[in-house]
Amino acid sequence: MPTKKNLGYTPHRNGAGYTLVELLVVISILAVLGVFVIVNFKNFAQDQVINKSIGQMQSVLRLAQSNATSGAFCLIGCPNPNLACGDWWAEFSAGGSQINLFCAKSTSVQKSYSLEGAIISTIEGDSSSCSGPFSSATARITYSSLYGLLTFGGSDGGSESCFNSSSLLKISILNQKTNNIKSFNLSKGGAIDVQ
For the chain, which domains are there? Predict the structure, then answer.
């Protein structure tokens, strides 16, 4: 009688299970993957702080533009509440986290916004008269009434008055926990380009 050849079949061990070495290898792999996921999640969460701040600045700028083009009334401090406000502008300073919204018929801040966990690091104009990024400059982004035309300006008499002749402003946002910086460009056409 011919004998059967062993075709790679091995009988089961009694007490089948995993060895200690196999369990340690699996636990080590899971631990490395867990650390990798936690580190990347923390970086993702910190990046969201900057993205949220940039989104908030964009919202304030769009609100100023919308108020100017729609002929919105001043909310606070207008001497004649029956007159449309006229121009609206957003004003913010490098080194600060505050964005203020103003209207032309009032000297009072109409609304104030604060960036959470981030500050405006630098503001830079592209004009040849601008001497580089400013870490303590004040920028004013004005939208004219009815047409919403955009103009840039700086604080009166400051070196950042070169913003007036700039066609583009580069605004950098700093995450205060991680010191990561993200920038966006604002052009005179109103486009906001996040880098």
Answer: 39-194 (3.55.40.10)
